[in-house]
Design a protein that fits this description.
Blueprint (H helix, E strand, L loop, with lengths): L1 H23 L11 H24 L5 E7 L5 H9 L17 E4 L4 H4 L9 E4 L11 H4 L21 E6 L7 E5 L8 H12 L3 E7 L6 H13 L2 E9 L4 H14 L7 E5 L11 H16 L1 H21 L2 H37 L6 H11 L1 H10 L4 H9 L4 H35 L5 H10 L3 H26 L3 H10 L1 H12 L9 H21 L1 H37 L3 H23 L4
Parallel strand pairs: 1-5, 1-6, 2-4, 3-4, 6-7, 7-8
Antiparallel strand pairs: 2-5
Length: about 600
């Protein structure tokens, strides 16, 4: 039952890890905020840890151990690896970076575990060609290495980034344990330092190599400090120790390790001495380290214990360090939310402004009012208005039916122009206002540039708005044409003319005089009264308000849709940023599930 429970817990942890991996794949940092760079680095590192080590190791707890040999420039990592296996499998150089290509050495019996994408799935592999060289002097011919062409600016093989790993099956290495000679952790090439960190993150076991001259440097201790934080099983090799100072230096390093939480780490000391005839550290000197590694490789229970210890520490570290991902990404979401709110609020104000001006009488001035008066006949309209509206109903047909079609068409043109100008100006002002406000929001330059490239110009906007108004007028005229089903209503409609009644209905839509002052109110108000009486003569009193409300609602609906089209460049820029509050929830949920799964494993049988 215990084995079954362990398998269930293991699957639970793997599901939680894969859930976290999927959530992290959606995390982006498009806004140039102070925390963006560190957040992106944290996401990259966690994603690499999950893909390169944590998930593959959980899926295969019985796999051989991967021991990464790491350390500072010139510490002797490659020479140590070559000496341990008695063959030149790792190439070093006197020119920095000294490790020229990471080499993964494993027993041929373990090839299935390492000549695949089980670990380091995104790292390119180069197969070692031929048997390993037997001496350091044969290294140049036998080591799997390809020269990198010089790049612009003089980049050479030594300064070019390392991007792949050489695979070196070696019968001299016992099964159950592989050695990976990694790039220098303090390499002069930034990409190589990052690659070294990625390889170390994929390790079950760290073998840290330092020297008597450099063991107190800051860089080595930053690496060892991380080993403590992640509970990575580690061993330390103190290389090139002057024989006369061996006791003193070893004791000092042991004290420092104990002080920093690595008191249980095995410490192996290699005295300063000439290499043997084959260019290796003498086997007798390496015997303690060799025996320790051989014992680990041969003992399945010991291997599993090492893997579980490092794995548990890494997963706990992922959970404990979740703020390194969540905090900076949440800041990105806050900016995206703010940009979206600015956009929506400003365009909503634009639509509200259009709706207000459509109905408050401000359109019933200037050219539009003059053209409507032409339809009625200015002098006759004025005299009838002075006599009062009570007699207009009986005489209104005489005002309108005799007017030439040209006057009605000119009124329609004036109405269309007034509405087009109003809508285009408000939408243009909204777009420019959003763009300006976005520009003054910290960290948004890339998103602003993306939106600005797609903004409509004035001609494009005016064409779109002209089509909007034309379609609105056509819909309004169709409503006038079909409003009265009776023969009497149809006769009256034909008597007045559909276009003239349509103009009258538009005047009623614009009739509220709340936006006018002084004499404008009397003129516009009288104009609206005449238009309303025209419509009443045809459709009766009850239909007028319903028709006007429907016509206005249709216009505002079309304006709102056009406002949404005007927003598209901004919406697409926001979508292109790919920042979402839903992803924050997914991350939080994934971290919470992972914490619960890990706790369940710790409380029961260990994974």
């Amino acid at each position: 039952m215990r084995g079954k429970d362990t398998a269930v817990q293991q699957r639970s942890v793997i599901r939680a890890l894969e859930q976290l991996q999927a959530a992290l794949a959606q995390v982006h940092f498009p806004f140039e905020l102070p925390t963006g760079e560190s957040g992106a680095a944290a996401v990259q590192r966690v994603s690499q840890q999950l893909a390169n080590y944590v998930i593959p190791r959980f899926a295969a707890l019985d796999a051989p151990l991967l021991a990464v040999v790491g350390g500072s420039t010139g510490a002797g990592k490659s020479t140590l690896v070559n000496s341990l296996v008695g063959h030149v499998v790792a190439k070093a150089s006197a020119i920095r970076p000294t490790t020229r290509r990471p080499t993964l050495v494993y027993a041929p019996s373990d090839e299935q575990w390492f000549d695949s994408t089980r670990v380091l799935p995104h790292v390119a592999r180069v197969k070692f060609h031929g048997a390993p060289a037997h001496t350091a002097h044969e290294q140049e011919a036998e080591t799997p290495h390809t020269l990198v062409p010089a790049a612009a600016g003089g980049a050479t093989e030594q300064s070019a980034p390392i991007t792949d790993v050489a695979l070196a099956p070696c019968a001299a290495l016992p099964g159950g344990l592989a050695l990976l000679d990694s790039p220098d952790i303090d390499s002069v090439v930034r990409e190589n330092r990052e690659f070294a960190a990625e390889l170390l993150d994929a390790a079950d076991l760290w073998i840290f190599v330092t020297t008597a001259a450099r063991y107190a440097d800051a860089v080595p201790w930053s690496m060892l400090r991380e080993a403590v934080q992640r509970n990575v099983v580690s061993a330390v090799v103190l290389n090139r120790v002057p024989p006369q100072a061996q006791a003193e230096v070893s004791a000092d390093l042991r004290a420092k390790l104990t002080e920093r939480g690595l008191g249980d780490a095995p410490l192996f000391t290699i005295p300063e001495m000439p290499l043997d005839a084959e260019g290796f550290i003498p086997a007798a000197v390496l015997a303690p380290l060799h025996a320790w590694l051989a014992e680990l490789g041969a003992d399945t229970a010991a291997r599993t214990a090492v893997a579980q210890t490092t794995l548990a520490g890494t997963v706990h570290s992922l959970v404990n360090d979740q703020e390194a991902v969540l905090v900076p990404y949440t800041e990105q979401v806050e900016v995206a939310t703010r940009l979206g709110a600015i956009r929506r609020e400003r365009f909503e104000r634009a639509v509200d402004a259009i709706e207000q001006q459509v109905g408050n009488g401000t359109l019933l001035t200037g050219e539009l009012l003059a053209r409507w008066q032409d339809v009625l006949g200015t002098g006759e309209w004025s005299r009838k208005l002075e006599r009062g509206v009570s007699r207009l109903r009986d005489r209104i047909v005489g005002f309108v039916s005799g007017r030439p079609a040209e006057s009605v068409q000119q009124a329609q043109v004036a109405i269309a122009q007034s509405v087009r100008t109003l809508v285009a100006q408000e939408l243009s002002a909204a777009a420019l206002d959003v763009l300006s406000t976005w520009e003054h929001t910290a960290g948004t330059s890339a998103v602003v540039a993306a939106a600005e490239r797609q903004l409509r110009n004035d001609a494009e906007r005016e064409r779109a708005v002209a089509m909007l108004v034309q379609q609105w007028e056509e819909e309004l005229l169709e409503m006038v044409r079909t409003q009265g089903p009776s023969k009497k209503a149809l006769a009256r409609t034909l008597s007045f003319g559909v276009n003239a009644l349509g103009v009258a209905l538009m005047i009623v839509v614009f009739a509220n005089t709340g936006g006018l002052v002084g004499g404008e109110i009397a003129v516009a108000g009288g104009t609206a009264v005449v238009a309303q009486k025209v419509l009443e003569a045809v459709f009766g009193d009850s239909a007028i308000l319903r028709m006007a409300a429907r016509a206005k609602a249709d216009l505002i609906h079309r304006v709102r849709r056009e406002g949404q089209r005007e927003q598209l460049p901004f919406v697409e820029a926001e979508n292109g940023a790919a920042v979402s509050a839903e992803v924050v929830l997914e991350l939080e949920h994934a971290y919470r599930d992972l914490a619960h799964a890990v706790k369940a494993g710790a409380d029961g049988s260990r994974y």
